[in-house]
Structures are given as structure tokens and as C-alpha cells.
Amino acid sequence: MENASEVVNFVRKMLVYETTDDAYLNAAGTMGSWLGFGGIQEFTKPFAELIRLGSSLYLGHHTHGFEDASIPNARDFNVVTLYDEDWWNDNETPYYDSSTAGPGDGVRWDWNSMGWSATDDLLPFLNGETKTENTTPHLLYISDHGSPEWGMVKLKTTPTTYYNCDDLSKLHNTNPFFFYDDSCQVGKFDVNNCFGEVITTMEHGAFACILNSRDGLGAEDDSLDSPSTQMTREFFHSVLGEGIFELGRAHQEAKESCIWRLGSIAWLRYVYYEVNLFGDPELRLRVTTDADPTALSVDAGISMITWSGEPVQLDPNVVNNSDPFSPLTYAWSADPNDGVVFNPNANVEDPNVTITKA
């Protein structure tokens, strides 16, 4: 963040997300474009479907997705899809597959005349203004080509005249969203105003995102077993399958879940180090319908202690039953006129608290 306005935008969007009860929390989306790698990797729809539907491919366990979350009280997400492959199937046939086609076979993909539109399809969706889905999505997954200036398939950080593309200034959503985009270099934070920086610090847009600082990687064979997609699947599984809601913890859990395959897929190491969180690592994704905690303080301790002037030691045991990994903060208090001192006065662990006269 470069100035006070960006700090204000970043914090405000998080506060809006943490406190809203808007129906948009039940909306999600997956997006993909033409990739051009041939075979099953010609379009990115097959990768995105692993996130939408969940999958048991390749990883030795099932990874849960938007539509098959296993955590208690998971939201029943209404998932909207935007896929260039679907556009193609509705408009063109046969397709030129670079892995099988010969000279003159099929029609090649043309960025200048084909695909869904950022102006007509994506921006209305993100702004909550489509004819059928009048709500901004809460969660998004994107798989595409990208660059420091380009993300979310067809959005640019600055004005553009490219066909079917548009720019981030057209976002005016009041409900901020989270998105995971495993495209190349969208999160290249070592250049000025990369896509990830702009969309999280502008007035509208995202409250957080996970992006690559370098290249997103496809599979080395004709499969969907790509290093980038594996990391993405493990992230959403951490949230929707294991109930790890803090962004930072879920992101790290996803990385550590991939370590066992480093010997067989060397490029996983590359992805491990280049995929980064743009956002507050302590922020919790609100993917369940459980009521959020509203109590600011609870008096659950001893109301009175009688003592003879010698130090009295307490050993409290406090547990957060809703999430044992999220510690409770608690403090001690007394009549200041009595000159009583508590050491420590506040903690987030299970301290031994000694009471003495000042």
C-alpha cells in the first residue's frame, strides 16, 4: 500500500466483509479462457471444474470444492460459470486442437473476435448487475493467461481497447470478494501496481486474493495434474473440506499438503514459493452459515478473592470451543483503589496469573 487512501480502502473492505449479512455470501463463480496447450488443456474449463465440483484425481484424496463442501453448515453456493470453452461450443465447430489438428483442420482461436466479454458478462457479474444473478460473488476461482497488468481473464489495471476486455476502474461493487487466480504473474508484487495490488487497494474490487508472482504452470502431459491447480485445489480443500477459515492458515496448509509430491513434480517447489496472499492472513472466510461471534466480552472468572497480602496465583483454562485454533484474548481487572496488580494483565495463552499489591 502506497498511501493513506489505499490503507483505508483495504481496511474498509475487510470490515464490510466481516460484518455483512448480505445474500452475496452464498454466491460464487469460476472462470476460464482459451489456454492453447492442446488436448484437455486447450481450454481452462476442465481445471476450473475441479474447483467447482471437487475432485479425487491425482492427489491421493478428495479435494472439496464450491459445490461439494464437507464442513458442517457449509453455504449452499450458487455458482456462476464463465468459460470460453462453453462460448466456443455454442458458436463454433469444429475446433482446431493444436495437439491433433493438421493443416487446415478446424478453426483457430482468435482473441480479437471470440470468447465471453468482460464488459457484458464479467463486470455485470462482479458488480451484481446481471439479469439473472443480481449479486456480487463471494468467492471466485480463475484460470487463464495473465500478466502483472492483466488478471481475472479479461480485466486490465489501466484502460484498454482490446476486444472483449475492460479495466478495473469499471468495478463499483459494494460487496467485496475473494478470488484465487492461478494465471501467470498477476501477483508480481515487485513491479509497481500489479493487478493484485490494485484490486485489493482500490475502493471496490477484492478484499483479498491469492496470486502467482511468477508463472502459473499447466501439466507436463495431457492431463489436469498441473502444479498450480494442485495448489489451488488444496487451498479450497483446506477451507471447504477441513474447516480452516483463516486465509493465511489455509494458504500455508495448501502448500504443506503438496510437499509429498515434490519428488515427482519438481515444479511444485516453484509454485510453493511464488504463490502469495494479498490480504490479511488472519481474516476468516465466511463459508458457513454459523452465526458469527457477537459477544465482545464474557465474565466467566472469579468475582472475589479474599487474601492475606501474600501473592495469589491463578491458573485459568480457557478454550474456544467453536475453533480451538483461534485463541481467546482475556484480561483481569480489579478496583484500582485497592492497588491490585495482575501479571500478566492480558494474554492469549493459558497463563499463570499472579495477583499482588502495587
UniProtKB/TrEMBL annotation:
Residues 2-285 form the Gingipain domain. The lineage of its organism: unclassified sequences, metagenomes, ecological metagenomes. One of its GO terms (biological process) is proteolysis. This is Gingipain domain-containing protein. One of its GO terms (molecular function) is cysteine-type peptidase activity. It comes from marine sediment metagenome.
